[in-house]
User: Which sequence fits this backbone?
């Protein structure tokens, strides 16, 4: 096992100068596996590790791109561990990744995935194809299988703009590294069942970018309504979901101001509907 | 039994230096120029794929002249070093000085121990928060390092180029201005140009130009080509 070079006396080790793959993952596995989360070896008899978990991620395509959104809550058992966690990240200029599952491992997977794409881009001088990126992520998730079996599962949702096909595309994964292309929309995490219901009713072909952002907020709000591990838009602390869109122009993070408007509008609509329903209920009982 | 010839260490080193210099001098030059908002790199290179200037890390770029296979290996080693270091610590902990040091050690070791020195000359540059914070390191085939300010020229006719550019360059110059100087200087190299003093007009498509743009967040490296480069070159005539 080679040490991470902390000094540079003696110049580059021979392996740095060797002709090899353009993959940072391959390089680091050979050179410094101790820095990788996937090289962790837990005792076989250990009870499943209970760390913070992050929850609902939704993705949907719109005309000319794709939206990926995640709530901000991380839970540990029935406790809220974090209220402002970010689970949706730009992987590179044309793709985004959101992660549900064991938070610490998920952050590491994202950091490694971002670097994997950047490393390839610098060495080869060109971007990986969208399928190529999706496959690299599958390899990383498969590498985490040992940890997943001990309770540290990580399940990503990957979305990007396909520069060749000029359209947004979504990929989902399972813990064994299975990669599935999703059409229209998809959701992962503990609140995904409820989010998926909302997406089925609200998604339609030909959505614009801002309509798609609205649908994502509504799906996350529905998930938070019924899943205690998912946090909805927090109007008290002004904490909004992290939402990113990918189009031919690249990745854009939807601003807090825009989300505050969307979330407030949605809250008003729902509040008005609830008041109306309540009035009807009380009125009905009186008759 | 034949006796090996005695060769004095001075002679041995001189032979190696001459060999490396000859190889480097045959290559087309690369110029590096600081400007107000960053550091610019330019060379005459008709290839769109075989680059002489590349990104190493967020604020660090690499430029090389000499044998392609040799500097390509060094470039890849630098990216691996920077990415691993940034991953183990933090992106802010990757700097040009450490990288230049690793290159110097590698070049120096090869120069003294291998049968042939590396026929390359490198620049490792890091863009700072302002022009005074820019760092430009020039590395020679024998592992010697020099920190340069504002202007570097390497490769064939590098002395002449450096002289030309030093006469014009001043801190705070704009990007179109330094690119115009670079293009004109590169166009004045070549045997017939140096004899007659005629300057060739290098077409934009034959220029490889890249910058470290200090105003960009995170990854500051950017290649300039196509219509964008033409516009910049036409900015100053």
Assistant:
């Amino acid at each position: 096992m080679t040490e991470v070079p902390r000094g540079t006396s003696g110049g580059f080790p021979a392996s740095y100068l060797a002709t090899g793959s353009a993959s940072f993952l391959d390089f680091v596995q050979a050179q410094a596996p101790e820095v990788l989360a996937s090289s962790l070896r837990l005792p076989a008899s250990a009870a499943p590790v209970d760390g913070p978990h992050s929850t609902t991620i939704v993705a949907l395509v719109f005309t000319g791109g794709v939206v990926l959104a995640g709530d901000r809550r991380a839970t540990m058992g029935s406790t809220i561990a974090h209220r402002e966690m970010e689970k949706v990240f730009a992987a590179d200029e044309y793709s985004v990744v959101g992660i549900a599952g064991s938070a610490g491992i998920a952050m590491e997977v994202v950091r490694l995935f971002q670097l994997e794409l950047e490393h390839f881009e610098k060495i080869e001088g060109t971007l990986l194809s969208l399928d190529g990126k999706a496959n690299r992520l599958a390899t990383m998730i498969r590498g985490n299988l040992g940890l997943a079996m001990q309770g540290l599962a990580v399940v990503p949702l990957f979305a990007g703009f396909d520069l060749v096909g000029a359209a947004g595309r979504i990929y989902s994964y399972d813990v064994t590294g299975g990669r599935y292309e999703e059409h229209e929309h998809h959701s992962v995490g503990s609140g995904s069942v409820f989010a998926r219901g909302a997406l089925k009713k609200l998604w339609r072909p030909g959505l614009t970018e801002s309509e798609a952002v609205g649908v994502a907020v509504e799906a996350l709000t529905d998930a938070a309504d019924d899943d205690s591990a998912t946090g909805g838009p927090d109007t008290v602390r002004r904490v909004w979901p992290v939402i990113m869109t990918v189009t031919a122009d690249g990745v854009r993070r939807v601003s807090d101001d825009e989300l505050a408007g969307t979330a407030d509008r949605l809250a008003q609509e729902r509040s008005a509907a609830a008041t109306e329903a309540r009035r009807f209920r009380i009125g009905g009982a009186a008759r | 039994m034949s006796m090996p010839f005695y060769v004095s260490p001075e002679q041995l080193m001189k032979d190696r230096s001459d060999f490396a210099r000859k190889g480097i001098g045959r290559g087309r030059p690369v110029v590096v120029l600081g400007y107000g908002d960053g550091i610019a790199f330019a060379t005459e290179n008709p290839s769109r794929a075989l680059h002489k200037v590349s990104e190493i890390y967020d604020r660090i770029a690499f430029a090389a002249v000499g044998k392609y296979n040799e500097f390509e290996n060094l470039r890849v080693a630098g990216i691996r070093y920077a990415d691993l270091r940034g991953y183990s610590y933090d992106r802010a902990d990757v700097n040009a000085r450490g990288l230049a040091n690793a290159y110097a050690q590698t070049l120096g070791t090869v120069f003294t121990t291998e049968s042939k020195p590396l026929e390359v000359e490198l620049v490792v540059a890091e863009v700072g928060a302002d022009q005074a914070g820019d760092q430009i390191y020039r590395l020679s085939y024998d592992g010697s390092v020099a920190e340069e300010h504002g202007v570097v020229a390497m490769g064939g006719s590098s002395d002449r180029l450096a002289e030309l550019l030093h006469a014009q360059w001043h801190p705070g110059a704009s990007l179109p201005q330094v690119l115009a100087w670079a293009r004109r200087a590169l166009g004045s190299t070549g045997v017939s140009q140096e004899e007659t003093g005629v300057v060739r007009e290098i077409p934009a498509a034959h220029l490889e130009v890249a910058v470290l743009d200090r105003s960009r967040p995170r990854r500051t490296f950017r290649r300039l080509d196509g219509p964008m480069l033409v516009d910049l070159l036409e900015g100053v005539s």
Observations:
- Chain A touches chain B through 24 residues (CB under 8 Å).
- Chain A has one domain: 53-280.
- The helical segments of chain A are 14-17, 24-31, 103-124, 130-143, 145-148, 192-202, 209-226, 256-286.
